[in-house]
Amino acid sequence: MHIGCPTEIKPQEFRVGLTPNAAREAVANGHKVTMQSGAGIGSGFSDDDYRAAGAAIADSAEEVFATAEMIVKVKEPQAPERRMLREGQILFTYLHLAPDPAQTEDLVNSGATCIAYETVTDRNGGLPLLAPMSEVAGRLAPQVGAWTLQKANGGRGVLLGGVPGVGPANVVVIGGGVVGTQAAKIAAGMGARVTVLDKSLPRMRYLDDVYGREFRTVYSSVGATADAVAQADLVIGAVLVPGAAAPKLVTREQLSTMKPGAAIVDVAIDQGGCFETSKATTHEDPIYEVDGIMHYCVANMPGAVARTSTLALGNATMPFVLAIADKGWKQACLDDAHLAEGLNVHQGLITNLAVGEGLGREAISAQEALRR
Ligand SMILES: NC(=O)C1=CN([C@@H]2O[C@H](COP(=O)(O)OP(=O)(O)OC[C@H]3O[C@@H](n4cnc5c(N)ncnc54)[C@H](O)[C@@H]3O)[C@@H](O)[C@H]2O)C=CC1
Ligand SMILES: CC(=O)C(=O)O
Ligand SMILES: [Mg+2]
Questions:
Q1: Which of 86, 96, 165, 186, CA to CA, is 20 to 30 A from 274?
Q2: What's the whole-number mean pLDDT along residues 133-148?
Q3: With the C-alpha atoms ordered 132, 133, 134, 139, is the resulting torsion angle positive or negative?
Q4: For position 279, what pLDDT does the model report?
Q5: What whole-number percentage of the chain has pLDDT above 90?
Q6: What average pLDDT does the chain have?
Q7: Confidence class of residue 49 from pLDDT cuts 50, 70 and 90?
Q8: Where is the Alanine dehydrogenase/pyridine nucleotide transhydrogenase NAD(H)-binding domain positioned along the sequence (predicted)?
């Protein structure tokens, strides 16, 4: 198969869909790889690194999209990229369609087969292509939260770890999955007093067993969330209902109960965010204020540490890229029901029920799409 990888064009996005190692692996398996010139620069990989791996270098994104049978990317295709997709082409990348009707409409109209990293599953109920970026974003969240709390950034001027004689900050993490666990670990490591809210009892049992000395868990309810948020210096939003829009767990009204200058880092923003007042921001202009509360809502946080993120994402995507390239998307999905869960759009139809529900649009299941 001919695999193409363009340069990411989302603002301040420095990751790349294929590492030189992934390109080498694909070439070794008999596939052709075309990289857009400069695609790897932001992650520290030169065109020569890709040439050495056996890839061809194209001058433009147009050339990559026009020639490749499968496009491998990182971020959801931006409008100019969507216009270059064609019928029958495979797109393999993050999509986050539930909160994004405009992108969905373009992908449906393109006729392309679009497989979303974030809804591919594994046999343990996990999300193997989201997990590495969730690990990165989770570990970044206390770091950017600490920065947002600084006075010059509009925050309340509280140091997460406190100092001898002055207590630490209260950090509340809503959602104790991959993002939430990594965020809680790092915040606790920075010396903060950390509470994790989740509504999965098995998950809280696990967290308590493994991290019981580092942070505490509280069952997530409207009342418990309200109490925790009112006490917090920093709230990290880390919930996920796979494929669906994030539930809004903190209302605008509740901001008035918070400490002035407290900070919110809504990592769940790529699924629409779990605070009513969240709207996506970029690395160029990451924070804004609502009712005295500072919001950080960058939808591609891992792009800030592009090299680490590209390497971590590449480790996770490589087996799936190879399976699709070796067998074609259909056989690869027939052989692996977990990959099939990634099928979000095919031949003008939404093919993931949670995504369809999130958008309020008609959808069929991936299994139904595979039967047709
Ligand atoms: N902004 C960014 O750059 C990035 C954003 N993300 C996003 O972060 C979010 C979290 O991802 P993961 O941690 O990988 O998901 P996960 O599935 O590992 O964890 C989500 C957790 O939320 C919990 N949850 C669901 N509803 C809840 C509720 N009402 N109250 C409390 N907890 C609830 C679940 O029980 C689960 O433990 C996703 O939306 C993901 O797309 C991930 C990576 C980067
Ligand atoms: C998961 C995701 O949206 C990101 O890494 O940007
Ligand atoms: Mg994102």
A1: 186
A2: 98
A3: positive
A4: 98
A5: 97
A6: 97
A7: very high
A8: 149-297
- Give me the residue spans of the domains in the chain: 2-119+305-371, 131-299
Out of 96, 100, 295, 346, pick the active-site residue. 96
- Would you state the CATH architecture of domain 131-299? 3-Layer(aba) Sandwich (3.40)
188: tokens are 């606790």
Residues with CB under 6 A from ligand 1: 118, 127, 130, 133-134, 137, 174-180, 197-200, 203, 220, 238-241, 246-247, 249, 267-271, 299-302
With 0-12 CB in 10 A as exposed, 13-18 as middle and 19+ as buried, what is 333? buried
Among 179, 225, 269, say which to mutate for ligand 1: greatest number of ligand atoms within 8 Å of CB: 179
pLDDT of residue 11: 87
Residue nearest to atom 5 of ligand 2 (CA): 133
Residue type at 144 in one-letter notation: V
Superfamily name with CATH number, domain 2-119+305-371: NAD(P)-binding Rossmann-like Domain (3.40.50.720)
| pLDDT over 90 at 242, yes or no | no
